[in-house]
Amino acid sequence: MTETVDAVLIGGGIMSATLGTFLSELQPDWKIAVYERLHDVGMESSNAWNNAGTGHAALCELNYTPEAADGSVDTAKAITINEQFQQSRQFWSSLVDEGVLDAPSTFINSAPHMTFVRGEKDVAFLKKRYEALRTQPLFEGIQYSEDSRVINSWAPLLMQKRRAGEPFAATRVTSGTDVDFGALTHQLFDNLRERGAEVVTNREVKSIKRQKDDTWLIKWRNSIGRTPGATRARFVFVGAGGWAIKLLQSSGIPEISGYGVFPIGGQWLKTSNPALVAQHKAKVYSQASVGAPPMSVPHLDTRVVNGEASLLFGPFATFSPKFLKNGSMFDLVAQVRPGNLWPMMKVAIDNPSLITYLVGELLKNHKKKVDSLRTFMPTAKDEDWELLDAGQRAQVMKKDPKKGGVLQFGTEVVTSKDGTIAGLLGASPGASTAVSIMLGLLQTCFPDRIAEWEPRLRELIPSYGEKLNPRPEIAAEVLSETAETLALTA
């Protein structure tokens, strides 16, 4: 007899870990099952080396503050993303207080967030961005400088042997963070197991089909022994990274029609040279190359993984038709359906600069990649840096009434009309805003329960349902309290 559970979460990443934690807190009587196709959780995009570990709060990412036609800087998206990250900080703080998560340093550490630009045009833009953000409560404390001595005190590797007379500028926010989403994912799943959830690895979901009683039949196969099986679920979440589109298509929900994804891989340059690591304690972002997707904005980052500090620079784009690092070479073509063929073709036609960028990236060898690093760090030596493969990102392609099809950067939740199945498509800043994304999913999929759940949600996230930025005193209090609990620089 096929087992029936309340919720099946497909994919063992930070999204399923976050949603599973919410459900176990809000409905402790529910039976929850998590299925991951690899031998462990957190092995794909949530793995520490497959992402930059940036606690994306829009403190340093220029693509979140676009310049309008009149020359003004639009801060709306930056404020929204920062609000979302503050929800993550509050949630993690509550879980630390309740003993669900281990010592904060095992998954989050202070790392000032900086933006560094060169050339008169970018310097002028960065100054306007600074002026637009410095009056916003969530960006209080942002610093700006064009003084080489000041910037050198912030990040010495940026300034050593910098060419004289070159215009440059930087901003800095000391409350930035470096997050090990792999460690966080493992700790959340460990807690779910302790609370009675079934977390199964080496189990690949093959199909999802709606049944006459409106439950979902999830057919799966175990990697070890190749034994097949099935589970019925009243609710399904597909958090399987790039493979989410394949499983949502198999479900037959009309809401997925018109969607496609385009895979972009990446590589990092990494160094563990203690002399270099000691001189750079920040995440430093700059402008993206012409035609580059926002996720490819170059940055030189402090990383702390398993207590060990290192530096990463990149990412450098790579290409594979796989939707996951451990995917299939047929992923890209297997997703094609009559409903998404034209939107995908329009994206290809309308984005020649992206194709040019990818080709240019693929032609770079190790030496050329270190040459790119030297725009950040003029003293970089080839022998200090090794190449490391990053994760696969599946960028969303979707129908557009005006253009026919658009390439969308960011994340998007696709939900059935009745809310019994939902899946996440897209990439950055997904992990950092997982809490906000899952709160939105709870409201969409469980509208009849959300009022009942609200008291517990407010315990976990004190600002739940409210904005911090319009309330400076509350924003300062929340930032201070979470920084203290997470042992961060406020």
Write a compact overview of the structure shown:
This protein is of the alpha+beta class and 490 residues long. Helix content is 32%, strand content 25%. The mean pLDDT is 94.
What gross morphology would you assign?
Answer: globular
CATH fold title: FAD/NAD(P)-binding domain
| Helical content (DSSP H or I, runs of 4+) | 25-40%
User: How big a fraction of the residues is strand?
Assistant: 25-35%
Low-confidence stretches: none
Mean pLDDT: 94
Pathway: Carbohydrate metabolism; tricarboxylic acid cycle; oxaloacetate from (S)-malate (quinone route): step 1/1
EC number: 1.1.5.4
Cofactor: FAD
Catalytic activity: (S)-malate + a quinone = a quinol + oxaloacetate
Topology:
Blueprint: E1 3-10, H1 14-26, E2 32-35, H2 76-97, E3 108-110, E4 113-118, H3 120-133, E5 143-145, H4 148-154, H5 156-159, E6 168-173, E7 177-179, H6 181-194, E8 198-200, E9 203-210, E10 216-222, E11 228-238, H7 244-251, E12 260-271, H8 274-277, E13 283-285, E14 299-305, E15 308-318, H9 331-334, H10 338-350, H11 352-362, H12 366-373, E16 386-389, E17 393-400, E18 404-408, E19 411-415, E20 421-426, H13 434-445, H14 450-460, H15 472-485
Parallel strand pairs: 1-2, 1-11, 2-8, 4-13, 11-20
Antiparallel strand pairs: 3-7, 4-6, 5-6, 9-10, 10-11, 12-15, 12-16, 12-17, 13-14, 14-15, 17-18, 19-20
Explain the overall architecture.
Its cofactor is FAD. With 490 residues, the protein is α+β, with helices and mostly antiparallel strands. The chain has one domain: FAD/NAD(P)-binding domain. 32% of the residues lie in helices and 25% in strands. It is built from 15 helices and 20 strands. The strands form 3 sheets. Strands 4, 5, 6, 12, 13, 14, 15, 16, 17 and 18 form a 10-stranded mixed sheet that branches. Strands 1, 2, 8, 9, 10, 11, 19 and 20 form an 8-stranded mixed sheet that branches. Strands 3-7 form a two-stranded antiparallel sheet. The longest helix has 22 residues, at 76-97. The radius of gyration is 22 Å and the shape is globular. The relative contact order is 0.18.
